[in-house]
Structures are given as C-alpha cells and as structure tokens.
Automatic annotation (TrEMBL):
Its EC number is 2.7.7.7. Belongs to the DnaX/STICHEL family. DNA polymerase III is a complex, multichain enzyme responsible for most of the replicative synthesis in bacteria. This DNA polymerase also exhibits 3' to 5' exonuclease activity. Residues 14-24 have a biased composition (Acidic residues). It comes from Novosphingobium aureum. Keywords: ATP-binding, DNA replication, DNA-directed DNA polymerase, Metal-binding, Nucleotide-binding, Nucleotidyltransferase, Transferase, Zinc. GO terms for cellular component: DNA polymerase III complex. The keyword ATP-binding applies. The keyword Lyase does not apply. InterPro entries: AAA+_ATPase, DNA_pol3_clamp-load_cplx_C, DNA_pol_III_gamma-3, DNA_pol_III_gamma/tau_C, DNA_pol_III_sug/sutau_N, DNA_Rep/Repair_Clamp_Loader, HLD_clamp_pol_III_gamma_tau, P-loop_NTPase. This is DNA polymerase III subunit gamma/tau. Residues 1-81, 471-497 are annotated as: Disordered. Residues 56-80, 485-497 have a biased composition (Low complexity). It catalyses: DNA(n) + a 2'-deoxyribonucleoside 5'-triphosphate = DNA(n+1) + diphosphate.
Amino acid sequence: MHDSSDTSGSNLPWDEDPREDEEAPSAAELEAAGQSSMFGGDETAVDAPAAPAPEPEATLPQAAPVAAVPAKKPADSAADGQPYRVLARKYRPQTFDELIGQEAMVQTLANGIKRDRLAHAFLMTGVRGVGKTSTARLIAKALNCIGPDGQGGPTISPCGVCEPCVAIAEGRHIDVIEMDAASHTGVDDVREIIEAVRYAAVSARYKIYIIDEVHMLSRNAFNALLKTLEEPPAHVKFLFATTEVDKLPVTVLSRCQRFDLRRIPAPMLADHFAMVCSKEAVEAEPEALAMVAAAAEGSVRDGLSILDQAIAHADLDGEGMVRADKVRDMLGLSDKSVQRQLIAALLEGQGAGVLEIVARQFSLGVEPIAIMRGLMELVHRIALTQVGGDTLVVHSAEEREALEGWAKGLGAGQVHRMWQLLLKGHDEVRTAPDPLVAAQMALLRIMHAADMPDPGALVRKIEEIANRAPAPLVDGAGDPGGAPGASAQATATPQASAAQLAARWDELVDDVEAAGDLSGANTMRMQVRVVELGQGVLRYNQAPGFREDITARLRDGLSRATGERWQVERVEAEGAPTIVERAEADRTAATEAVRASPLVEATMAAFPGAELIEDERPAAIGGGGNRNWRR
C-alpha cells in the first residue's frame, strides 16, 4: 500500500497535473478558434459559451479579436462576421408560407396532417429550382416540430424555434438524414438505410430519409429498397426528390405519394424578386425584374442567382439600381425596340436594314439565337393580340401600339407562316457552324416569303378563275361559214339532251339507293353507260372491265324503286359516260384549270419541287364552312 501511494504521488509523465492544461488554451485550440472566427463555423460558435469565462478574459487578452467575437455574437447578427451568402441560400423557404407557387401541394399536406393521413413516402418532382429539396426539409420540420413549449405535434406551420426545427434548418439533426443519390448510387448505400430503419428515432418523432436526385440510384439499389419502401416501420418517412421522374421504376412510383411541383409563373417570380430587393435595400426597375423572371424559366433558384448577378452588375455602375438596360446587357438579350425595328424591316422588305440591325446586335454581344428567340416571342404576342389573348405585360404604350397595328394589318395566316419560318430558322441557327450567317439567311428567307401570295387568297383566286372559265366548245361551233345563231341553236339541243339524260339517270340511281339497294346503286354508277333512257325503257352499254351480266339486277332495282315494269337491254352502241367517269372527268378538268392559272404557274415556278395535290376534304354543307385564312 505504501508503494502504491508513493507511486501515485510521484511525478511520472502520465501523472501530470491536468490543471496546467486548463489554465490556458493550446496553440491548436487558438488556431481552431481563429478558423471558426474566420469561416463562421456554427459548431464552434455554439460550443464557445460553454467554456469557462474567467480564464480566457484573464489569460488571453491578445486573442480576443480571434476567439471572443464569434462567441459573443447574437444569432441575428451572425451574418456580419460570416462570408456573403448568395440570395438563393439566404432566401430558401423556412416555412410553407414562404414556398411560392405550390399552393395545391401545401393544401394536400395540410389536410393530411390535420386528418393524420400521412403517407410513408413522398416524391417531389419538377424542374430545377422550384423547391423540391426545400419542400422535403419543410415536411421534415412539420412532422418533427414540438412547438416552443415542447408539447406540440405535427403541424403545417412549424414554429422554427424548437430544437428539432432549428437542427433541421441547420442540417445537423441526427434523425433527419439527407443523402445525395448522385454520389451514393449503389446497393451498399441503400443497405445502410435498410439496416438503420429498424432502430427508432433518437430525438425526434420520426426518422426521416431525404434522398435527393433519387433517379440516380442504380437498378439494383432500387430493387433492394423496394420492400423497405413498401412496408417501412411506423417511425420512418422517406422523402424523395428528382428532376427526371420518368427514370424511376414504376414499382417505386406506386409506393410513393407524388407531388409535381410546377414552374413558377413569371409575374409571381417578379413579385418575389421585388420583395427580395426590398429586404436587401436594393432598388430595381420593374422591367429589369421582369427580364430576370423571364430568364429564370420558372425556377426560383435560377432567378435568384440571376438577380444576385444583376445586383452585383448594377453596383459596378455606382448607382446601386438594377436597371433594365444593364440586365439586358448582362443576359445578352435583344432590346425590344430593336426587335420591333427588325420585324418592321422584315415586313417592309428592307434587306439591307435587316442585315444592319443583326450586325449591330451581334457587335453588342447579342447572340444570333437570342435574336431569333426575341423575334419568335414578338410574333407570338402579335398572334395573341389578334385573338385578344395577350396576357403578357406590355411595358410601354409604344409597344402596345405596335402590336395592335401589326395585329390588324397582318392576316392570321401570315403571322402563323412567319412563326413557322422563325421556328425553322431557330433550329438552323442552333445547329449551324456559323450561327450569324444562319440567322441572316433565315431572316432574308422570311423577308422574301412576304412576297408570296397568301394561301387562302390564292385558293379563292383559283376558285374565281375556275368559275369564270368558258364552257368547252363542241365540234362545228367555230365554223366560220355558218351563222352564229344557227350554230348555237344546233349545239344547244344535243348539250341540253345530254344534260337532261344525265340528270334523269342520276335521279333514278338515287331512287334505287333510297329503296335500300345500295349494291345495285353502286353498280349503276360504275358500270352503266346509258344509250337510251325512256319511260320504262333502258338500253345501256357496260363499261370496260366488267364481264358480269347485270341486266336482271338493273331491271329488278329499277322496278322496286319506281313501282313500274322496266324493259332493260344491253347493246353495243356507244353510250354516255358512267357517273363515276363523269365525276373523274370533272375533277380532271378542274385540276387542269387550276394548273393553268397564272398564280399557280408562278407558285410552281418559285418552288420547283412543289406538287399540286387534290384537297380531299368534304365541302361545307350549306356554304357555311369556316375558313382559317380569312384575309
């Protein structure tokens, strides 16, 4: 015992007094504290108040600027000593009220929480930056919130001040596990989840797994997760987020409650950006915010990133205001006034002016593809103005006046044809080796297409020419030796008798069809060339290509249709054309008349590869058909 006490009281290296280490922090501790102050580490700032207060003040006066400042800062002013946080992170939604544009999803979640009908797996889909991951974190907050008094339950309006809410917001909650499936794609990563779900949550109501970009998981990983996803423990919730829902197996989709987060409308984005600028004490023109919202393409995160860049770009000017011209230069957009000048030059056929405007815009940094998109947007707005559906915001009276003028002066067909040409030009510019040359050629093609006649007007003109065409002359009608009156009288009687014969035969065929003999009526139309037609008498010649004797069928069909006895005889004399042959002859004559039209000849010459095809659409009954090309 004595030796043991002597040994315990000896000055051995492992028996050094620990109070020496407590008197002053080591160099490593000072370095760690300095790094925490420099980089704003949250954990060091939280743990610093737990250290004894007297010793640092007494022994480290020279280290006060390094370690003492983060420890004494309140949470509200922590940003003063931290690096700048981009707007997309600073204004990430912390409550469902701050989540814009997803009212339907929020209402569904609220009702599910109130009725205690919560699914075990949620799938958030949508384009980038619409709030998929933010929604997953908000759901985790809503399910695990305990309220300021620690007695609350799941709620659609988490308090944000209780320990679970704060820990989830800071990304340090032990029971809310976030996994990036893009970097954890294998079965081993999923196996860790499967093994961990068996254990209850440590400090929360639910253990929540947030898997971002879940479509990146391998097929084997999905298969391994299926059974756990179908029947997870009651304390486990899965929250999936993906931008490519079509890559998910159907077996996974069927086990999740799916929410499709929609794109945010541009006006709503502009209002949101105005609110952000107000909080940031930054002035911004409404037109500039509208440009940022349009460039965001429905993504809040993309829009905030662009707005962040626009604010920095405006500060370089020294005025501090986000101006439309600066945003336009930053985004490489084409000025709307220049777009109006360009489309006016196209419509007026000013080729030199078109090329000059394009070259000037290109020298200012506007890409040719942006020029084409700007023109497409303008033509689209002209079309909407024509039908009274232009819901986009017009920023100037000049622009509204120009749109209304073009809407009245251009036909609907012209606007749609211009859109199609611009769309084709856009594709050519996007894939061309020299986009500038492709844009120039596409715009010149549009300008020259304006000289082409409107298809609707062309069709009407052809119809007028066909209606004015003179009747074909019969043999002997042009005999100079005969008197004009006698010739007309001589030719009128055969024409009239042939027309009367054809009309009488058509009526008989219709009567046979009305009596229910459809097959007999079709036979009469295709095979019968009438030689003589009288009261109860029919002599006919059968059309070439048909061998079956149809005399008895004709006699029976005519007798049933008229109630009279008919004498039907097949003869070898030449008869009038069948109904089908007459229709084909009329169609051929009409086609030749159209082809001989000067307008059609000019069109065929302009387009060597064009073909004249027959319009097989039925004519409008009663002459009341609608025309899409009314001008």
